[in-house]
Amino acid sequence: MKRNVLLILLIALICGCRKQPQPVSTPQTDSIVVIAVKETAPKPIKSKQAQILDSLGFINIAEADSTILIDLAYTHADNFTGEVLYETLHEAYLHPLAMESLLKANQLLKAKHPNYSLLVLDAARPMSIQKRMWDKVKGTPNNIYVANPSKGGGMHNYGMAVDVTIVDEQGEWLPMGTGFDHFGPAAHTTHEEELVAQGIISEEERRNRRLLREVMRGGGFIPLHSEWWHFNRLRREETIQNYQLIE
After folding, report:
1. What is the pLDDT of residues 133-158, one digit of tens each?
2. Is the dihedral of CA 233, 237, 238, 243 positive or negative?
3. What are phi and psi of 39, to 5 degrees?
4. Residue 120 dihedral angles phi and psi, to the nearest 5°
5. Reported pTM
6. Dihedral of the CA atoms 96, 101, 104, 105 (nearest 10)?
7. Up-side HSE of residue 110: CA atoms within 13 Å toward CB?
8. What is the Cα–Cα distance from 80 to 182, expressed in whole angstroms?
Protein backbone atom coordinates (compact mmCIF):
# COMPACT_ATOMS: atom_id res chain seq x y z
CA MET A 1 0.00 0.00 0.00
CA LYS A 2 2.79 2.40 0.97
CA ARG A 3 4.56 1.49 -2.24
CA ASN A 4 1.53 2.34 -4.36
CA VAL A 5 1.19 5.75 -2.72
CA LEU A 6 4.79 6.60 -3.51
CA LEU A 7 4.28 5.57 -7.15
CA ILE A 8 1.22 7.83 -7.46
CA LEU A 9 3.12 10.80 -5.97
CA LEU A 10 6.01 10.25 -8.35
CA ILE A 11 3.70 10.21 -11.39
CA ALA A 12 1.95 13.38 -10.23
CA LEU A 13 5.29 15.14 -9.78
CA ILE A 14 6.45 14.21 -13.26
CA CYS A 15 3.20 15.40 -14.88
CA GLY A 16 3.31 18.69 -13.01
CA CYS A 17 6.80 19.42 -14.30
CA ARG A 18 5.75 19.08 -17.92
CA LYS A 19 4.93 22.35 -19.64
CA GLN A 20 1.49 22.53 -21.04
CA PRO A 21 1.44 23.43 -24.70
CA GLN A 22 0.67 27.11 -25.21
CA PRO A 23 -1.76 28.20 -27.87
CA VAL A 24 0.03 29.43 -30.93
CA SER A 25 -1.02 32.92 -31.84
CA THR A 26 -1.53 33.43 -35.53
CA PRO A 27 -0.21 36.82 -36.61
CA GLN A 28 -2.83 38.92 -38.31
CA THR A 29 -2.10 39.69 -41.90
CA ASP A 30 -3.58 42.38 -44.13
CA SER A 31 -6.21 41.00 -46.45
CA ILE A 32 -5.21 41.05 -50.09
CA VAL A 33 -7.74 42.50 -52.51
CA VAL A 34 -7.38 41.24 -56.04
CA ILE A 35 -8.64 43.73 -58.61
CA ALA A 36 -9.42 42.37 -62.04
CA VAL A 37 -8.07 44.74 -64.66
CA LYS A 38 -9.86 44.58 -67.97
CA GLU A 39 -7.41 44.61 -70.81
CA THR A 40 -8.28 46.99 -73.59
CA ALA A 41 -6.72 47.09 -77.00
CA PRO A 42 -4.51 50.14 -77.44
CA LYS A 43 -5.92 52.79 -79.70
CA PRO A 44 -4.24 52.82 -83.10
CA ILE A 45 -1.84 55.67 -83.63
CA LYS A 46 -3.30 58.16 -86.06
CA SER A 47 -1.33 59.34 -89.04
CA LYS A 48 0.20 62.81 -89.02
CA GLN A 49 -2.33 64.10 -91.53
CA ALA A 50 -5.20 62.68 -89.46
CA GLN A 51 -3.94 64.53 -86.40
CA ILE A 52 -3.96 67.75 -88.42
CA LEU A 53 -7.53 67.12 -89.59
CA ASP A 54 -8.55 66.44 -85.99
CA SER A 55 -7.10 69.77 -84.93
CA LEU A 56 -9.02 71.56 -87.70
CA GLY A 57 -12.33 70.15 -86.50
CA PHE A 58 -12.95 67.56 -89.21
CA ILE A 59 -14.66 64.30 -88.23
CA ASN A 60 -13.20 60.80 -88.55
CA ILE A 61 -15.90 58.76 -90.32
CA ALA A 62 -14.95 55.46 -88.69
CA GLU A 63 -15.17 57.02 -85.23
CA ALA A 64 -18.55 58.62 -86.00
CA ASP A 65 -20.16 55.41 -87.33
CA SER A 66 -18.35 52.08 -87.41
CA THR A 67 -21.01 50.57 -89.72
CA ILE A 68 -19.74 52.81 -92.54
CA LEU A 69 -16.87 50.91 -94.17
CA ILE A 70 -13.65 52.57 -95.31
CA ASP A 71 -11.26 51.65 -98.13
CA LEU A 72 -9.45 54.77 -99.30
CA ALA A 73 -8.52 54.22 -102.94
CA TYR A 74 -5.45 56.43 -102.81
CA THR A 75 -3.79 54.49 -100.00
CA HIS A 76 -2.83 51.92 -102.64
CA ALA A 77 -1.77 52.16 -106.27
CA ASP A 78 -5.01 50.78 -107.76
CA ASN A 79 -6.31 54.17 -108.91
CA PHE A 80 -6.13 56.34 -112.01
CA THR A 81 -2.64 57.64 -111.12
CA GLY A 82 -1.16 54.17 -110.60
CA GLU A 83 0.55 55.51 -107.47
CA VAL A 84 0.06 55.55 -103.71
CA LEU A 85 -0.96 59.15 -103.01
CA TYR A 86 -2.05 58.94 -99.38
CA GLU A 87 1.27 58.09 -97.81
CA THR A 88 0.53 59.93 -94.54
CA LEU A 89 -3.27 59.71 -94.53
CA HIS A 90 -5.01 56.42 -93.80
CA GLU A 91 -8.26 57.68 -92.26
CA ALA A 92 -11.38 59.13 -93.89
CA TYR A 93 -12.47 62.55 -92.65
CA LEU A 94 -15.29 64.95 -93.50
CA HIS A 95 -16.40 68.43 -92.54
CA PRO A 96 -19.03 68.15 -89.74
CA LEU A 97 -21.77 69.30 -92.13
CA ALA A 98 -20.93 66.57 -94.63
CA MET A 99 -20.48 64.04 -91.85
CA GLU A 100 -24.00 64.72 -90.58
CA SER A 101 -25.36 64.06 -94.07
CA LEU A 102 -23.38 60.85 -94.48
CA LEU A 103 -24.74 59.51 -91.19
CA LYS A 104 -28.26 60.24 -92.37
CA ALA A 105 -27.62 58.59 -95.74
CA ASN A 106 -26.32 55.50 -93.99
CA GLN A 107 -29.44 55.34 -91.82
CA LEU A 108 -31.63 55.55 -94.93
CA LEU A 109 -29.69 52.72 -96.59
CA LYS A 110 -29.93 50.51 -93.49
CA ALA A 111 -33.67 51.15 -93.27
CA LYS A 112 -34.11 49.93 -96.85
CA HIS A 113 -31.49 47.17 -96.84
CA PRO A 114 -30.23 46.25 -93.35
CA ASN A 115 -27.50 44.00 -94.79
CA TYR A 116 -26.04 46.65 -97.09
CA SER A 117 -23.30 49.08 -96.08
CA LEU A 118 -21.84 52.27 -97.46
CA LEU A 119 -18.18 51.97 -98.45
CA VAL A 120 -16.19 55.21 -98.50
CA LEU A 121 -13.50 55.34 -101.19
CA ASP A 122 -12.33 58.91 -100.65
CA ALA A 123 -13.24 61.84 -98.43
CA ALA A 124 -11.24 64.86 -97.24
CA ARG A 125 -8.19 65.35 -99.45
CA PRO A 126 -5.27 67.73 -98.87
CA MET A 127 -4.55 70.23 -101.66
CA SER A 128 -1.01 68.86 -101.88
CA ILE A 129 -2.50 65.58 -103.13
CA GLN A 130 -4.87 67.42 -105.46
CA LYS A 131 -1.87 69.00 -107.17
CA ARG A 132 -0.30 65.61 -107.77
CA MET A 133 -3.56 64.36 -109.30
CA TRP A 134 -3.82 67.41 -111.53
CA ASP A 135 -0.28 66.89 -112.78
CA LYS A 136 -1.36 63.46 -114.04
CA VAL A 137 -4.20 64.78 -116.21
CA LYS A 138 -3.35 68.35 -117.19
CA GLY A 139 -3.04 68.72 -120.94
CA THR A 140 -5.08 65.54 -121.53
CA PRO A 141 -8.81 64.94 -122.19
CA ASN A 142 -9.11 63.54 -118.68
CA ASN A 143 -8.49 66.93 -117.09
CA ILE A 144 -12.26 67.45 -116.94
CA TYR A 145 -12.44 64.81 -114.22
CA VAL A 146 -9.95 66.41 -111.81
CA ALA A 147 -10.46 69.81 -110.18
CA ASN A 148 -7.76 72.37 -111.03
CA PRO A 149 -5.85 73.45 -107.88
CA SER A 150 -5.22 76.91 -109.33
CA LYS A 151 -9.00 77.45 -109.40
CA GLY A 152 -9.61 76.52 -105.79
CA GLY A 153 -9.51 72.76 -106.15
CA GLY A 154 -12.52 70.56 -105.57
CA MET A 155 -14.93 69.73 -102.78
CA HIS A 156 -12.70 66.98 -101.43
CA ASN A 157 -10.17 69.69 -100.57
CA TYR A 158 -12.67 71.17 -98.11
CA GLY A 159 -13.96 67.90 -96.68
CA MET A 160 -17.28 68.58 -98.43
CA ALA A 161 -17.25 65.64 -100.85
CA VAL A 162 -17.26 61.90 -100.47
CA ASP A 163 -16.70 59.08 -102.95
CA VAL A 164 -18.85 56.13 -101.95
CA THR A 165 -20.42 52.90 -103.12
CA ILE A 166 -22.56 50.13 -101.59
CA VAL A 167 -21.48 46.65 -100.54
CA ASP A 168 -23.59 43.62 -99.62
CA GLU A 169 -23.43 41.45 -96.51
CA GLN A 170 -20.36 39.63 -97.90
CA GLY A 171 -18.57 42.92 -98.46
CA GLU A 172 -18.91 42.64 -102.23
CA TRP A 173 -19.54 45.80 -104.24
CA LEU A 174 -22.96 46.08 -105.79
CA PRO A 175 -22.37 46.20 -109.57
CA MET A 176 -22.46 49.80 -110.78
CA GLY A 177 -21.42 49.43 -114.41
CA THR A 178 -17.87 50.73 -113.97
CA GLY A 179 -15.23 50.71 -111.31
CA PHE A 180 -14.12 53.68 -109.24
CA ASP A 181 -12.10 56.36 -111.08
CA HIS A 182 -13.46 55.36 -114.48
CA PHE A 183 -13.03 58.34 -116.79
CA GLY A 184 -15.66 58.19 -119.51
CA PRO A 185 -19.39 58.30 -120.36
CA ALA A 186 -20.08 54.87 -118.83
CA ALA A 187 -19.61 56.42 -115.37
CA HIS A 188 -21.93 59.36 -116.10
CA THR A 189 -25.40 59.44 -114.55
CA THR A 190 -27.17 61.77 -116.99
CA HIS A 191 -28.05 59.23 -119.71
CA GLU A 192 -28.27 55.91 -117.92
CA GLU A 193 -31.31 54.74 -119.88
CA GLU A 194 -29.29 55.06 -123.07
CA LEU A 195 -26.36 53.25 -121.44
CA VAL A 196 -28.70 50.36 -120.60
CA ALA A 197 -30.22 50.36 -124.11
CA GLN A 198 -26.74 50.23 -125.62
CA GLY A 199 -25.68 47.39 -123.34
CA ILE A 200 -22.97 49.49 -121.70
CA ILE A 201 -24.48 49.01 -118.24
CA SER A 202 -27.20 46.60 -117.10
CA GLU A 203 -30.61 47.37 -115.66
CA GLU A 204 -29.42 45.98 -112.31
CA GLU A 205 -26.44 48.35 -112.37
CA ARG A 206 -28.72 51.28 -113.09
CA ARG A 207 -30.97 50.31 -110.16
CA ASN A 208 -27.96 50.12 -107.86
CA ARG A 209 -26.81 53.57 -108.92
CA ARG A 210 -30.28 54.92 -108.30
CA LEU A 211 -30.33 53.39 -104.82
CA LEU A 212 -27.00 55.04 -104.04
CA ARG A 213 -28.20 58.42 -105.30
CA GLU A 214 -31.49 58.06 -103.43
CA VAL A 215 -29.92 57.57 -100.01
CA MET A 216 -27.18 60.14 -100.60
CA ARG A 217 -29.66 62.76 -101.78
CA GLY A 218 -31.83 61.89 -98.78
CA GLY A 219 -28.86 62.73 -96.58
CA GLY A 220 -28.44 66.10 -98.26
CA PHE A 221 -25.73 65.40 -100.86
CA ILE A 222 -25.61 66.58 -104.46
CA PRO A 223 -24.58 63.95 -107.06
CA LEU A 224 -21.80 64.70 -109.53
CA HIS A 225 -23.16 63.78 -112.95
CA SER A 226 -19.84 62.65 -114.41
CA GLU A 227 -19.02 60.16 -111.60
CA TRP A 228 -21.68 57.90 -110.10
CA TRP A 229 -19.63 57.53 -106.88
CA HIS A 230 -19.03 61.24 -106.16
CA PHE A 231 -21.30 63.39 -103.95
CA ASN A 232 -20.89 67.01 -102.83
CA ARG A 233 -22.48 68.43 -99.72
CA LEU A 234 -22.59 72.03 -101.02
CA ARG A 235 -22.16 73.85 -104.30
CA ARG A 236 -18.57 74.56 -105.26
CA GLU A 237 -18.82 78.36 -105.28
CA GLU A 238 -20.36 78.47 -101.81
CA THR A 239 -17.77 76.10 -100.43
CA ILE A 240 -14.74 77.93 -101.80
CA GLN A 241 -16.00 81.27 -100.49
CA ASN A 242 -16.99 80.16 -97.00
CA TYR A 243 -15.05 77.10 -95.90
CA GLN A 244 -11.48 76.22 -94.98
CA LEU A 245 -9.15 74.65 -97.52
CA ILE A 246 -7.16 71.61 -96.40
CA GLU A 247 -3.55 72.28 -97.29
Report:
1. 999 999 999 999 999 999 999 999 99
2. positive
3. -80, 130
4. -85, 125
5. 0.82
6. -130
7. 13
8. 8
